[in-house]
Amino acid sequence: MTVFAHILFFACMLANFTINFVHFMHMFQLNSYSAKEQFEWWKKNRKEMWLRGIFPEIFFLFALVTALWAYFGGNPAVWVAADFLPFVGAALNAFGAAVAVFIRKPAKKKLVFTPRVIRMCVTMAIVYGAVCAVSFIFLYETKLYFAVVTMLPWLCVFMPCLANFINKPIEKAVNNHYINDAKRIISELPNTTVIGITGSYGKTSTKFYLEKLLSAKYNVLMTPGSFNTTMGVVKIVRGSLNATHEIFLCEMGAKGVGEIKEICDIVRPKHSIITSIGEQHLETFGSVENIIKTKFEIADAVTDGTVFLNYDNEFIRNKPIDKNHVTYGINGGDWDYTASDIRVTEKGTDFTVHHGGEEMQYHTRLLGEHNVQNILGAIAVSHELGISLEELVYPVKRLECVPHRMEILDKGNGVTVIDDAFNSNPAGARAALKTLSMFDALRIVATPGMIELGEREYQLNKELGMDAAGCCDIAILVGERQAPPIKEGLLAKGFPENHIIIAKDLNEAMKSAYSIQPGRKRVILLENDLPDNF
Q1: Rounded to whole angstroms, how far apart are CA atoms 484 and 490?
Q2: Rounded Cα–Cα distance for residues 389 and 357 (Å)
Q3: How far is residue 309's CA from residue 137's CA, in Å, rounded to a whole number?
Q4: Which are the contacts of 222, defined by CB distance < 8 A and separation ≥ 6?
Q5: Residue of 111, 143, 386, 435 with fewest CB within 10 Å of its CB?
């Protein structure tokens, strides 16, 4: 029975640890392998932390201490009970694993077992095995061994951060190898023009539009999706970039000062574009001033090329720059490229581009002034690289929505969904709401609000509610934790409270949206979709 008890104990203990470890490793991956971001996530999810480990382990420790007190007090009944400690430990670990499974939610983006994650798992296994072995050697005879080992599954909370810390020298060496290889590849492609693109918002859309426009004349490679981190860019350079590519469009994202400079040092952009600067990722940047400094790192990297600047953005417009630069915007001004006569209908958008006394009319199937702004930036770059305004008319007409960025989806039965699910920000949300307001239909917005805005998060989500009040008929707020500031903003503008619905998750929100006034023409704006770590 002793052998069976130990096997059962270890099986339940490892199951409990593994289920929870995979979850916390998943969160660590979503938090960019940052211990600081993981710690902030812990603070915001105390209830989950308690349920996943602390409660069952503390309960068992209390029971064990009570039993050992009686044991050392000479109670023979507890001597017999001590032999059943493996069963008690197995039961508590099985309970902990069951709780973890019960509270688990379906993942929108599952844990990816990258080489880095696999290395961390190996480190975790070594550390965990060592602790178990040491506990067995020194504590087994006292029966405290079962108390210690039963408490170990709770280490899964900290283990990803610990494994990452231990592996730091290895990861640095691996990353440096890949980075140096990417630098070598770039240096061996002197005829490939690198264009860096950054901004608080609009950078991915501008990149997609620019790729379509430049492809009218050049062989273009762009970083796909949101591959905009240092190692994401390195992966694309090493795996896809070659001598046949005349232009490489490199999107650059950042959550902290110096991160864009790090990418620029690798790809060395000839030209760069700054699409916008706004209150995004304030939680990690700390201030708008740091955001401005970081975004302009892409301009600092340009030596003999051109910096393209969106002068509709106040932060960009007010930042002095001593580089050769081209300005663009849709809100007037004495800028190099401007757009006027913007007419938005449900069928698309018409606008006129002006440059140096020349003008050209364009039509796009995309909706909204913010899309015109991004297209204008792409037109400016393409024209400066030798494609005439007239040659760009047809490519602009063929532009399609970027997935999850104001993507118009016809769901049938009179339902249109505006999918703007990717990483909402204050300016982007206002633009999306403005587009929603123009539809002649029942207008519904479904949103969990905005995140990573630091101390400004509550106020900015309240302002989101205030903006939404004048643009929608029904507001569906996703998540009880995120809903209060948005609801407060809606009510502050006199929005009817009985037109506000609180949904626990996105699936419930969309079901509610589809069920409202069936048969009537409806337009549903999905404004942001939070990742699994929120």
Answers
A1: 10
A2: 12
A3: 66
A4: 207, 208, 210, 211, 248, 249, 250, 251
A5: 386
The enclosing H or E element of 420 equals strand 415-420
Determine the Cα–Cα distance for residues 18 and 87; give it in Å rounded to an integer: 19
Instruction: Return the closest-CA partner of residue 6 out of 136, 97, 163, 151.
Output: 136
The Cα–Cα gap between 476 and 510 comes to 9
269, 290, 292: which is closest to 223 by C-alpha? 269
Identify which of 432, 482, 437, 436 has the alpha carbon closest to the alpha carbon of residue 462: 482
Type and span of the H or E element at 120 = helix 115-139
Amino acid 45: pLDDT: 76
Q: Which two tokens stand for residue 10?
A: 């270890």
Exposure class string for 481-501: b at 16+ Cβ within 10 A, else e: ebbbbbbebbeeeebeeeebb
Whether residue 402 contacts residue 428, with contact meaning beta carbons closer than 8 Å, is answered with: no
Domains and CATH numbers, the chain: 2-166 (no CATH), 187-397 (3.40.1190.10), 407-527 (3.90.190.20)
**Model's pTM, two decimal places?**
0.80
CA distance 373 to 330: 6
pLDDT digits (tens, 9 = 90+) for 316-341: 999 999 899 999 999 777 899 999 99
Mean pLDDT over the full length of the chain? 84
H or E element in which residue 314 lies: helix 314-317
Task: Bin 225: left if φ > 0, else alpha if -120 < ψ < 50, else beta.
Answer: left
